[in-house]
Amino acid sequence: MFFHIVLERNMQLHPRYFGRNLRDNLVSKLMKDVEGTCSGRHGFVVAVTGIENIGKGLIRDGTGFVTFPVKYQCVVFRPFKGEILEAVVTMVNKMGFFAEAGPVQIFVSNHLIPDDMEFQSGDMPNYTTSDGSVKIQKDSEVRLKIIGTRVDATEIVCLYILCLLLHFVECCLVKLHQRYAKFCFKKFKLIIGKQLDIAFVSLQISSLLQMPLKRAC
Questions:
Q1: φ/ψ of residue 5, rounded to 5
Q2: Could you give the 3-state DSSP secondary structure of residue 15?
Q3: 77-99: pLDDT as tens digits
Q4: CB 144 within 8 A of CB 109
Q5: What CATH number does the domain located at 84-216 have?
Q6: Where are the CATH 2.40.50.140 domain residues in the chain?
Q7: Using an 8 Å Cβ cutoff, are 78 and 42 in contact?
Q8: What per-residue string of b and e applies to 54-68 under the rule 16 or more CB within 10 Å gives b?
Q9: Pick from 108, 146, 101, 145: which is nearest to 127 by CA?
Q10: Domain named RNA polymerase Rpb7-like N-terminal: which ranges (predicted)?
């Protein structure tokens, strides 16, 4: 899901940034331009981790701008079908629940929640099993399985089913990704429950919940 790869990009730099700090200015512009962006092939660029090479600049006629070919290392987020993702619930309503996993914003439709879980309104809305043993509410930790993806020009759309419910805890996953909190992830949204055969999904959920953890995930 997270990969460390090498990418290339042609960077244009204004003449006012030339001088002894040219390299630093070029790297700063690179990080500003690519971090937080999404591509269909590589996924979501989380952070630039290093510069492998900066080629010779080419002056653009009539503008004074210089184009530099830059080869850089970066961490990307690319979900694939069949992968398991752990997330922390941020909001619950009768339509389903919202969750976050680092840079990912997730919505799970109520159609994809097991039939034995009912929505409970109140000060702390939640989904609870009939025997009360499992509860999904704000700050609950859930485990999701990707059952399909669709790549658009500026976003990656994923379909998830609930693989296994865990006890609710504080937002530990969010803390793991505090380093990347400064980046903008609004364009990266996971949309759940569209264009799915609900009966098929319910069957998949039932089967997964009956399997041991190692087999299900």
A1: -130, 170
A2: helix
A3: 887 878 888 989 999 999 999 88
A4: no
A5: 2.40.50.140
A6: 84-216
A7: yes
A8: beebeeeeeeeebeb
A9: 108
A10: 8-64
